[in-house]
Amino acid sequence: MAKSKRTPKAVPAFKTEAEERRFWETHDTTAYVDWSAAKPARFPNLKPSTETISLRLPAGLLADLKALANKQDVPYQSLLKVFLADRVAREWRASRVSGARSNKAVQPTSRARKGAKSPRRTRAARG
After folding, report:
1. Which candidate, 36, 26, 39, 27, places its Cα nearest to that of 6?
2. What is the pTM of this model?
3. Residue 62 near residue 70, CB atoms below 8 Å
4. Rounded to the nearest 5°, which phi and psi values hold at 45?
5. 23, 12 in Cβ contact below 8 A?
6. What ranges do the domains of the chain cover?
7. Percent helix, strand, coil in the chain (nearest 5)?
8. Nearest-5° angle of CA 2, CA 5, CA 8?
9. pLDDT single digits (tens) 93-110
């Protein structure tokens, strides 16, 4: 592959990060960067961003979680994250397998997503 002889354009100066973001969303970097000179970079100290959530758990479940975490000598929130990550990965794997078989991913209904109970049938509907 032959190296390009062209000189990259100068990257404009930006007043804000939002302005820079808008620019790069609408412009191709190949006109501004010589990617043939790029080198791989490693950022070993980066940590994934996290969000704080409020989660209501039954007292017994929380007590069991704390007991398991204590047994493993880890904070209970860390153990909960591991449990959730394992289950989510398992669900994704299962949906890929079943999706390949049926060629249709299973989607919960809007009521199920909201955690609503199934509607009760009225006497008239029961016949």
Report:
1. 36
2. 0.44
3. no
4. -95, 5
5. yes
6. 59-102
7. 50, 0, 50
8. 120
9. 998 877 766 555 445 544
